[in-house]
Amino acid sequence: MTRVFALDPDDWPIWRELRLRALEDAPEAFASTLAEVLERDTEKHWRAAVTAPMVPFVAESDGAPAAMGRLMWREDHDAPVELISVWVAPEHRGRGVGGTLVTTAVEHLAIHHPRTRLLLAVVETNAPARALYSRCGFAVIGRNPDDDAELLMEHGAP
């Protein structure tokens, strides 16, 4: 059984555990490296990672942390919200955990900020992630102007 929930700042150890695993497992999928993150491995850093303007979500499968992702708001409140830092632990892939996590984040945004655009960037060669996002209602809208290896996807785009 999969349960998805939002973290609060006191839950930072859960986020830390998943983020370090993600950076070790899929370094090409993230802007920061494991070494960079370990240089700032403090409670203050991790609390900031799970505090506004971020809304972090964790999926648990059979009681164990299995996936993570965050909604991130920009200072310009008219700007789209971004879904970032999505990762599913290898032992939980292919079991619907990622889809449940992404769907929960999409539903959270729709409830709390209706009509707000939701974007994400995905490495073009990451076919499993692209397929997950497509199943969850995202469509490619172009290349990421900040990283030519990534595609931008928008939820609900034609």
Automatic annotation (TrEMBL):
* UniProt keywords, alphabetically: Acyltransferase, Transferase
CDD domains given for it?
NAT_SF (cd04301)
Record PROSITE patterns: GNAT
Record-annotated N-acetyltransferase domain positions: 2-158
> What InterPro entries does the annotation carry?
Acyl_CoA_acyltransferase (IPR016181), Bact_Acetyltransf (IPR050832), GNAT_dom (IPR000182)
Name-wise, this protein is Ribosomal protein S18 acetylase RimI-like enzyme
